[in-house]
Amino acid sequence: MLNEILQTIPQVVIDGLTLGAVYAVIALGYTMVYGILELINFAHGEIFMSGAFIGTAILIVLTGMGWVSAVPAIVMLITVLLLTAILTGLLGMGIERVAYRPLRNAPRLIPLITAIGISFLLQDIVRFIAELQKGNYIVTGPNLFKDQLSIKASSISSIFNDASIKTSFVIVLVTAVIMMIGLDLFINRTKWGMAMRAVAQDRETASLMTVNVNKVISITFFIGSALGGATGVLFAVQYGTIDPYIGFILGLKAFTAAVLGGIGNIRGAMLGGLLLGLLEMFASANLTLLSGGVFGAEYKDVFAFAILIIVLLFKPEGLLGKPVTEKV
Amino acid sequence: MKFKKSLALLLTGSLAAGMILAGCGSSGGDTKASNVIKIATQTPLSGGSATIGEAIKLGAQLKLEEEKEKFKDLGFTLQLVPYDDQGDPKKGVANAQLIGADKSIMAVVGHFNSGVAIPSSEVYEKYAIPMVSPANSAVEVTTRGLKTVNRIVARDDFQGPAGAEFAVNTLKAKKIFIVQDKTAYGTGLAEAFKKAAEEKGAEILGFEGITVGEKDFNGVLNQVVSKKPDLVFFGGIYAEGGLLIKQAREKGVNVPFLGGDGMDASTLVEIAGDTIKNTYITSLAGDSTKIEEGKKFIETYKAKYKKDTESYSVYGYDTMGVVLRGIEDAIKANNNKKPTREQVRDAVRGVKDYQGVLTKVSFDDNGDNDYAKVFIYSFKEAKYPAEYVDEVSK
């Protein structure tokens, strides 16, 4: 049994990291907003979804104009990523302005409900536009990276099977890591980052110290949404097919990852995301084997979430959270 | 003799019509109304399945219009009353109540969704209105012992075994890996397939589930890769099916995929692209382009409605054929007088060896069709619809 598990490990790790990277970058959006406003922005999953659609739309338009074959795929991807990030960033700022800012002093529950409302709204707007354009809301974008790489894991040790990866996997992972490191530097090394941390710690005092709180919150939403939207593009590139409802399950899992890592803590969100992705992939590949056929792969979420519950029982503040939080 | 009689009826009919026209419809309406036989269609005419619902309705309408003359000779006027069930059980039941209240409606052609057909048919049973379904495949539609419910397509529990027969006998699959989507449809289909495949001697390497709405199936596929099956069966819908096939091919799984009618959609090809090759699906809908009568039907349909046929158009047509045969039998058995709903109900259930364009129909005691078939299609290239390869009869 152990042998069989070990054999598939290289592939499981690769697939788990891909999924985990997606979770991690979305989790960042949840954790940043929570860190500053103590608001769970449930519309974040839908911003991710909108990003996936915007990115695919840009790709389809550019393909139609014949640009894709003219420029290298990687240049193409970076252009699309940047464009989408700016658009979804603005979308996030707009949502904050319309649905959250007027309610900032209302009871906690109220912005939570508007967040849910916004997410339904986005789902159906995107579905409506997609159906209008294509007659079908399941959209398949052009395939940018088709090549397969093979990792000869068997040459390291004979207990491993070879693993195959798509080039897009490397790109997804690298881009996600760049985004995470960039954000980490931004928060910890720049003036705006410092302002964000200040607002997170104590909004009123920060505003007394001439920090423009509204602006900082706007920027937080912009960055969180831009990252979410860019991840949407990465997701569309990796999996090819998107629909307006992908934001729900992924958003839920990413939120879980944020809690697992310690909500409000950015490095925690990254760790939580990668961990959840790995756990899930491991469970769906090996659960049948581990349980002797009693539980199939369909119980992967149960397995992953059982571990989550155990972690939270012993460490309620999350893996990297501190009991007295220094947020963001 | 018969000719004379019908001529007389025709004359009386036109006389009555003339009288109505003369009297501005004030009197004589009663005699006319009693000779009107209405047939309702209940299909989704709006919403996601509107294309198919519309196709069923138009198919039924075509048959009804072709038979109008014949029924006029018998002294009856046929009328089609289309209802829109919106693919929604609540709407279906509400419509069924309306249908029950209209005494001149003698039969229903519908529904498209089994989930709508099941509750609506409870209402039909109360009013003794026979229903013939062109598309419902859920087993429970006919197993509840209702006298009014019939269908001309095969049941879900036959699709699995038919797929298994094709997989084991034609594709020579010995080791099969099954993936299903944890829905009533997907799991039901996969379990029926599994049972039949095991009986035919195939070895089942795994029976795993995925979650509807997710996009990453690499975990399950890693199991497929390590088990090395020579066929993968998927019980589920095209959205997950397409991704599953694509991701499997990317992992180097090049064995054939087999799925049910839930995969029969152009979106499947769109999602999977070129990786769709070497995929087979079982379907309850036959291919009308393969036979003479089918081609003729398609031509008439296109000429009349300026639209392409859908796979269920011809089923709408054949269903209406069965219904009208039943009504005709009931009229004859009732000495050419208007039959009651009960008589029509029993006559429809009693239809034997009706030859439609694509289907031959004989109802058994449950209202299932003895001649129901499952058709097998193959994707040889990234093109929809798939190519017809085989059919399996009950």
UniProtKB/TrEMBL annotation, chain A:
The keyword Cell membrane applies. Keywords: Amino-acid transport, Cell inner membrane, Cell membrane, Membrane, Transmembrane, Transmembrane helix, Transport. It is found in: Cell membrane. One of its GO terms (cellular component) is plasma membrane. One of its GO terms (biological process) is D-alanine transmembrane transport. CDD domains: TM_PBP1_LivH_like. Belongs to the binding-protein-dependent transport system permease family. LivHM subfamily. This is Branched-chain amino acid ABC transporter permease. The keyword Transmembrane helix applies. One of its GO terms (molecular function) is L-leucine transmembrane transporter activity. It is a multi-pass membrane protein. It comes from Neobacillus vireti LMG 21834. Its main location: membrane.
TrEMBL record, chain B:
InterPro entries: Leu-bd, Leu_Ile_Val-bd, Peripla_BP_I. Pfam families: Peripla_BP_6. Keywords: Amino-acid transport, Signal, Transport. The keyword Transmembrane does not apply. GO terms for biological process: amino acid transport. Residues 37-367 form the Leucine-binding protein domain. The keyword Transport applies. Residues 1-22 form the signal peptide. Gene3D superfamilies: 3.40.50.2300. Belongs to the leucine-binding protein family. PANTHER family: AMINO ACID BINDING PROTEIN, LEU/ILE/VAL-BINDING ABC TRANSPORTER SUBUNIT. This is Branched-chain amino acid ABC transporter branched-chain amino acid-binding protein. The lineage of its organism: Bacteria, Bacillati, Bacillota, Bacilli, Bacillales.
